[in-house]
Design goal:
The protein is mainly α. The chain is built from five helices and five strands, in the order E-E-H-E-H-E-H-E-H-H.
């Protein structure tokens, strides 16, 4: 994500982000994603917390932030409305998402089976694209 009036906001490919000053939070997969996929011309700036990353973006100390998509959607909606989600890309070691149920829940087996069936049929990928790419306005960056 980037401030709407920045050059990074207009990126349509990963290559367009190579010269951006990128910020990430320490202890997340974002740092390796930036280094392995974007390979920026200057080292990403690493911050201790998500609040520090958001503050750096607001103060224009960085051009862009790499976070997981749900976090980007939250930040642009609630914390930095002057920012936009530029896009998304697959990253090695990226985050996996799942459903959380109470320990020992009687629903665990049927929820797992339903998710497995959705994945096997290709429906999970379609739902992910619809709600995490198309509806969210987060195009895939190549």
């Amino acid at each position: 994500m980037a401030l709407k009036d920045s050059d990074a906001a207009g990126a349509t490919s990963i290559a367009d982000l190579e010269d951006a000053r990128i910020g990430v939070q320490i202890g997340t997969t974002s740092l390796s994603a930036v280094e392995d996929v974007i390979d920026p011309s200057e080292q990403p700036q690493v911050f201790n917390s998500s609040n520090d990353v958001v503050t750096a973006l607001k103060n224009e100390q960085i051009d862009a932030v790499v976070v997981d998509l749900p976090t980007a959607l939250y930040i642009t909606a609630a914390q930095v409305p002057t920012a936009t989600v530029v896009g998304q890309f697959a990253a090695p070691g990226g985050d996996q998402w799942g459903a959380l149920l109470a320990k020992g829940s009687a629903l665990t087996a049927c929820v797992s089976e339903a998710v497995d069936e959705l994945r096997a049929s290709g429906e999970l990928a379609k739902l992910t694209k619809r709600w995490m790419s198309d509806a969210a306005g987060a195009p895939e960056l190549d």
